[in-house]
Amino acid sequence: MAAVQAKFELAAAPFAVAPLRERLLDDAAGAYASFEGWVRNHNDGRPVHGLMYEAYAALAEAEGQRIVEEAAQRFAITGVHCVHRTGELAIGELAVWVGVGAGHRDAAFAACRWVIDEVKARVPIWKHERYADGDRQWLHPVAATTEGSAPREDTP
Amino acid sequence: MAAVQAKFELAAAPFAVAPLRERLLDDAAGAYASFEGWVRNHNDGRPVHGLMYEAYAALAEAEGQRIVEEAAQRFAITGVHCVHRTGELAIGELAVWVGVGAGHRDAAFAACRWVIDEVKARVPIWKHERYADGDRQWLHPVAATTEGSAPREDTP
Amino acid sequence: MARLRLLYFASLREATGIDGEAVDSAAPDLAGLYEEVAARHGLRWPREHLRVAVDGAFARWSDAPREGSEVAFIPPVSGG
Amino acid sequence: MARLRLLYFASLREATGIDGEAVDSAAPDLAGLYEEVAARHGLRWPREHLRVAVDGAFARWSDAPREGSEVAFIPPVSGG
């Protein structure tokens, strides 16, 4: 069996999905699942004008690569690729893409979902949102069990 | 709230995914999930040379449209689109595509998975496989509970 | 007696050798219509594995054949 | 005493006003190092909400600071 493609990348500029998807096509793969996160025009009901992603690049790339390689071990897939943007993003821009090729749809969906969940939980990338009212803040979601004590370094 | 896009189509010739995906982009949507089914070079360990999909077009289009509209009711999504090929397909060709836009990834993944499962279960489309050894057959999967009694009209 | 148009797809088309035919049937329901057709063409699918559609919409086996309608017996599907 | 390079990201960068600094620390472990840094910069994150990384890999709070290493305190992430 051919080695499973497993790749994670940061992208400082907009990137096209079509050629990345193309690379996951495989004559042995019957299923492909993908996920994309786009910049929404609102968050928690608050109008958003744009955002910035900051990464600790060295660690983000290493941790992201660990995630896709772990996915290649856990699921019966033929390839997995994830790209996450950094820098300034406008509304509607692509923030993150995950593509997975597999023999069957169960593995394709499960691996795709697992990768995006792990990326959101583990990869050191932070979102800075700019709101319509001129306010801006870093998003540092704290797990629900300890949420009551979550501080905000950047807001009163 | 804008009406949810919900569309199902049969395609007699190869189609491009990129412009279909584009139409699901929405400033209010933060998540996009897609599924693609490709023609594999094997099935149950048997080398496949190609296949043909036959549809009862009037019913397939009506039932497919019911599925995507039901998905728009069941899940918090902004749009859903499914296209299924008919006719002769070569190895590696795209057989079916499902794209879903949503506010959040839970709904995007759940709706995408639900639509492909329902399409496979309900839409009157049949696969005819050609094998490396020259044999060919119609695939008529019978639910596991009654599988023991499944007849094959086309094989001895 | 109802005049009907029958449609055959996939392995049913191969088993009957035709993709459709006009029939007159006195069957009281679509289940009875299938028994007639299965006997005439030697079809081996038990009705429990099929669905039936009338004029492009799924129907019930207990429905009466409707004069001038188009009836299709739907073997298990394999799209996707 | 270990000579270390500290990195700050996101709200920690804003709270300290710098993206990094060189420090000498006698803290026995990375937990102690964070207490020193938090006190000096008035950081309000309890350590339980942070992770710590050394030279581009996640580390344990109980690890001893390594001479010449690069240490980052990682506030809750929000990519994706």
Descriptive keywords:
heterotetramer, A: alpha+beta, five-stranded antiparallel β-sheet, four-stranded mixed β-sheet, 3 helices, 38% strand, disordered C terminus, C: alpha+beta, five-stranded mixed β-sheet, 2 helices, 5 strands, 24% helix, 30% strand
TL;DR of this structure?
Chain A is an alpha+beta fold and 156 residues long. In chain A, 28% of the residues lie in helices and 38% in strands.
Low-confidence stretches of chain A: 145-156
- The whole-angstrom Rg of chain C is 12 Å
- Main sheet overview of chain C: 5 strands, mixed
**Count of extended strands of chain A:** 9
Discrete helix count of chain C: 2
- Topology of chain C as a string of helices (H) and strands (E): EHEHEEE
Explain this structure.
The complex is a heterotetramer, with 2 copies of chain A (156 residues) and 2 copies of chain C (80 residues). Chain A has helices at 18-24, 57-74, 105-122, and strands at residues 5-11, 31-38, 42-43, 46-55, 77-85, 87-90, 94-102, 125-131, 136-139. With 156 residues, chain A is of the alpha+beta class. In chain A, strands 3, 4, 6, 8 and 9 form a 5-stranded antiparallel sheet that branches. The longest helix of chain A has 18 residues, at 57-74. Chain C is α+β, with helices and mostly antiparallel strands and 80 residues long. Chain C is built from 2 helices and 5 strands; from the N terminus they run E-H-E-H-E-E-E. A 5-stranded mixed sheet of chain C has the order 2-1-5-3-4, with helices on one face. The mean pLDDT of chain C is 97. The B-C interface holds B 37, 53-56, 58-60, 62-63, 84, 95-96, 116, 119-128, 138-143, 146, 149-154 and C 7, 9-12, 14-15, 43-46, 48-49, 53, 56-58, 72, 74-80. Strand 2 (31-38) of chain A pairs antiparallel with strand 2 (31-38) of chain B.
